[in-house]
Amino acid sequence: MTDAGMSKSRASRRQATPGRASVTGVDRAQQLMHYASQGERLTRATQAAVNGTVRAHPMPRCRLNTSAIHISPEDKMPDKPRSAEMHPGPGFRVRSTFSRPDPMLVRQFQDFATPDISDQLNRLYAVDSEIHCLTRRTSRLCGPVCTVKIFPGDNLMVHKALDIAQPGDIIAVDGSSSSTAVLGDLISTKAKHRGIAGFVVDGKIRDLPDVVPLDFPIFARGTTPVGPLHRGPGEINYPICLGGIVTYPGDILVADQAGIVVIRQQIALELLQRLRSFEAKNADYVAAVQRGEFSNAWVDRVLEEGGCIVGDPEFDAVVDQSEAANLTV
Predict the structure, then answer these.
(1) What is 40-73 written as a DSSP string?
(2) Is the pTM of this model over 0.85?
(3) DSSP string of 104-156?
(4) 324 φ, ψ to 5°?
């Protein structure tokens, strides 16, 4: 085929294809309507070109994706379910009351340090020591727990807990985040006015320079300037995980500079009796140690019972020979 014939053939194909026609005048409008018939939406610019309100420009040649599914504006799509909506029930609920221990029973635990309580609990109910007092070195807490579980970066339920907790309660918060503060100076001020004993937060707080002068006990993992939102979800007075310890509303919490322990309400009376008994038995021994009157014979007894070799003559002789040989070399 000659060059003239090939040019003529290409020209005829362009005229036969609406998508590749020359883009001037009526041809431009026909081209746009062709795309619209394929289910493509007209943009504001192309619609203006059809109406003749702007100057039409040549469109780049492209191949339509015939495998795509196009939905015209007249077609009705199903509504997308909103998975981010709040749902009542687990994760978004509040208990306004819970079974409380006898106040007289609670007060008696103030006489005991957390290490002694931990010993009588077989060393299994001490909260993670990373949670410590941030406000003042003499802070001590002892009281029933109002539990709060929050969504990471949110403290709506901490604010609500101020309406639920009673004077003398300790608000314990499962913060669920290490990057956002659970509370700050304003909520601490409100809590003090409500008679709350203090906060124990498995998380961080902020505004510490303004919190310290309040003389209000707060135990937490540390500080951050990043504040929380107030949207939810969360729970109040349901079981939480506080520093690795499952904590129920109404449990007795004791916190001092040595650490934090959680006492289940059901065993509180029995535990108090064990503490009193141990205290009486231990008093004479502690007094003798303070006078310098003690013996470590019990250590040797434990070593012997465990089969520990102390001062083996044969082994010592081998070691001595080896050391002597090294010195001569």
Answers:
(1) PPPPHHHHHHHHTSS---PPPP----TTSPP--T
(2) no
(3) HHHHHGGGS-HHHHHHHTTT--B--TTSEE-S-TT--EEEEEEEEEE-TTB-H
(4) -65, -40
**Distances from the Cα of 302 to the Cαs of 41, 82, 281, 285, 313, in angstroms?**
86, 65, 21, 19, 21
**CA-based R_g, the chain, Å:** 38
d(CA 271, CA 267): 6
Q: Return d(Cα 293, Cα 162) in angstroms, integer.
A: 52
Burial of 25 from C-beta contacts in 10 A (0-12 / 13-18 / 19+): exposed
Q: Which CATH architecture has domain 93-268?
A: 3-Layer(bba) Sandwich (3.50)
Domain boundaries, the chain: 3-51, 93-268
Q: How far is CA 63 from CA 18, 42, 50, 72, 125, in A?
A: 12, 17, 21, 20, 70
pLDDT digits (tens, 9 = 90+) for 9-40: 555 555 554 444 445 556 666 766 665 565 55
Q: Is 199 within 8 Å of 260 (Cβ atoms)?
A: no
Please state, in angstroms and rounded to a whole number, the distance separating the CA atoms of residues 103 and 144: 9
